[in-house]
Specification:
The structure is a homodimer of 178-residue chains. Chain A has 178 residues and is mostly helical. Helices cover 61% and strands 7% of the residues of chain A. Chain A contains seven helices and three strands; from the N terminus they run H-H-H-E-H-H-E-E-H-H. In chain A, helix 1 packs antiparallel against helix 2 and helix 2 crosses helix 6. Chain A is globular, with a radius of gyration of 20 Å. At the A-B interface, helix 1, helix 2, helix 3, helix 6 and helix 7 of A face helix 1, helix 2, helix 3, helix 6 and helix 7 of B. The structure holds a DNA duplex (24 and 24 nucleotides).
Amino acid sequence: MPSATPLPWDPIAEAHRHWKEHGWSTAADGMALVTSVMRAQQIMLASVESVLKPFGLTFARYEMLRLLSFARDGSLPMAAASARLQVHPTSVTSIVDRLERDGLVRRAAHPTDGRATLVEVTSAGRASVDEATAALNTQCFVDTGMAPEDATDVIRILATFRRDAGDFIEPVAPPEPL
Amino acid sequence: MPSATPLPWDPIAEAHRHWKEHGWSTAADGMALVTSVMRAQQIMLASVESVLKPFGLTFARYEMLRLLSFARDGSLPMAAASARLQVHPTSVTSIVDRLERDGLVRRAAHPTDGRATLVEVTSAGRASVDEATAALNTQCFVDTGMAPEDATDVIRILATFRRDAGDFIEPVAPPEPL
DNA sequence: CTGATCTCAGGCTAACTGAGATTA
DNA sequence: CTAATCTCAGTTCGCCTGAGATCA
């Protein structure tokens, strides 16, 4: 994208106004919420992917590496990765294909279940995810462009939303260490 | 996606804990924020696209129709649509290609600028966007799965975020009619 | 001429459907 | 047998780069 010029006003606020003028008042906030989240995600994804690009990683591939690097033994069955990352099984296949081609993960037979395949981070994969994480932390996550108290509000609200959408059971507030 | 089973705990809260344990405390909230927004967008997009599917629309195509239906004369130059929807010019070409193939928009010459092409909603396009909007309102927007006061908080916080990211100039709080 | 506007060609990612092989 | 797990083939979508035609 050719580094867009800012619009003179907020397009979502304008759409919100249109909704109310058309008698859709009860849906106006919902429309604005969904549209806002879509656009915020687009901004954040662009930022994250630009940082990951030098590492040859997409956000999906980064998340796979991160998940494996935190897993016991650095490995998980494909189906477990699919469930944890909420990505389609065939997408897991293609993500792992690409990471394997780059030597960042390897496939291994499951010790007891002959149907399952394990994915395992390699040492190159660990090095790659560590460097990528350092870059993301300094370039994206330390300053997201949002006030800290706003960030924690959004995190908390979206945790309830995700739980109610069926992502996980309980609790919304995680047991903090200590 | 085969209607996933809920996880027993919040994977983002777990990642947040990992970040803190690894000495990345200053980046932990940023990581959780970005990941939460990504996942919320995924949930909302899936919901919206399942409602739009019977109409043969994606969210991107729906937004194009919505934009045109609110525009004076129901038409805009391609470049204006690209700026308003924050999509790449070549993506506008392909979105309009598809909508035109379905008879929902048509291309027309710009009256004064020979370089520019206007996109215009057809009456079929207006009918389609009206029906799709009614379906979205009742099935997605009236109840987004979020408490109303949380929704307005998120809308407000993300408006500031979008403005600071360069989406638009001012003001964050739009001039309300009356 | 420069710069804006749009289209096309082509690569890449990822989602999805549907089918099939293998094994619990 | 049924159900789970994974892969493959093929489609669609949208993002992106780079190049070219057209016109202000």
